[in-house]
User: Fold this.
Amino acid sequence: MAGAGALRAPGPSRVGAVATYARTRDPFRFLEACVARFGDIYSLPLGPGGTTVVNHPELVGSWLTDYDRYHKGVMARALLPALGDGIPISDGDKWRRNRKALNPAFGRRNLDGLAGIIGRSLLDSIQRWDRIAETGHEVELYRELSIMTMQALQRSMFSSSVDDTDCPELVDLFRAQARYMGGLMATFWAPRWVPVPASRRGISAVAEINRRIDDVVGRRRAAPTGDADLLNLLLDIRHEDNGTQLSEAELRDELMGLWFGGFDTTGSALVWALALLAVNPEAAARLREEADAYHGDFTSFADLTSLPYAKAVFDEAQRVQGALLLTRQALVDDEIGGYLITAGSQVGVSAYTLNRNPAVWEHPERFEPERFLGEQRAAHHRHQFVQFGAGPRHCIGSGMAYLEAQFALTMIAQRFEIVTPQGWTPRHEFHMSIGIKGGLPARLRRRKVGA
Ligand code: HEM
Assistant:
């Protein structure tokens, strides 16, 4: 490779990037076009010093898992007005201290406690789905799933201190917040006078979510409960170094980070799973078989081991769903794949294109949950599937996401067949998480058990 280490990876100029975007009119096609033209490592004129994007597992670990030389940096900081300074975007000592303090809340022992809360919440939501099925009408299931996941998350965080009736309104607030975050990301490199899209509604949504957090924290302090929810776990935190608790501002920011981090991510991944099952009847039948053989009551974390196919469906759906760009900012000069990375520039990976790389995934266009089972799964490169990130900043809530997803997919498979309109297929839509354009239009057909 000519000039290895001394040159930046090849990539479009600013004008070239704008022209490619104008032609593709879509961030996903844009990234695909870059891979097609420049290969598995290329640079984009995005952010200070540019962004080097990699598209192969061998090129991911050296920076994504090295928090001493690569921190979250500018792209994450751009989200500060919408997300607060919780662990999803904080850096340095603040992040290290709070991540360490929060880790036990997502450990196995607490997930055992959360399993009951989440399982019962999903069973309550399913009754609403029963009523939808009775009507025989087509509905938009993405919204229904969002309400279902919002309820499960809200109860996991605040249990008896909240009322489920506001879940639809919360879904709208978090959607407005996500659009605002998308605007902040799209303009993070621009001068301050450039208007941020969706900011008016976004700013008032963020203020309203923070008001609700303050309200529930205030009520909990006034009337403590013994619930095994995330709020109590956070209120109990004592930092290892000096025994102090989270400050009020930290508590609010961490709750905001968990609420945002846990809501649309899980709902969007689940809608992809249902959509892909609807158009892949063999996988749907295999999931139904596993679901029918499960006789648990959805309250025990240990039950997840009897639901391996539900887990594989969830992973494979996320592979197809992908993610736009996971980035870090280099703290020092470095070299990746023989190309120069200058301190202050960004490095990123697009799980959307990585998950479609035919050198990595056999027949990436097929929906095959089996690739996440047994020997096939064991043969994966450790950075082949980065939907939950990797290294010290990997998703803190992944255990909770699997818990919710395996339970939800099993419950739904036990009760319903999802019937989409003839010829319908899901198409990607970016709104921080990756949703489905137009949602998931479907009818819920009630199953006769064993059918
Ligand atoms: C399918 C569901 C989910 C997906 C795909 C997902 C994805 C991710 C990814 C990719 C990261 C790492 C970002 C990076 O490295 O820059 C992350 C971090 C994080 N996630 Fe998740 N997540 C999910 C569910 C959850 C849940 C349920 C929670 C909590 C209730 C949560 C809370 C967080 C937090 C707080 C972080 C920041 C961790 C840190 O930087 O230390 N996530 N998530």
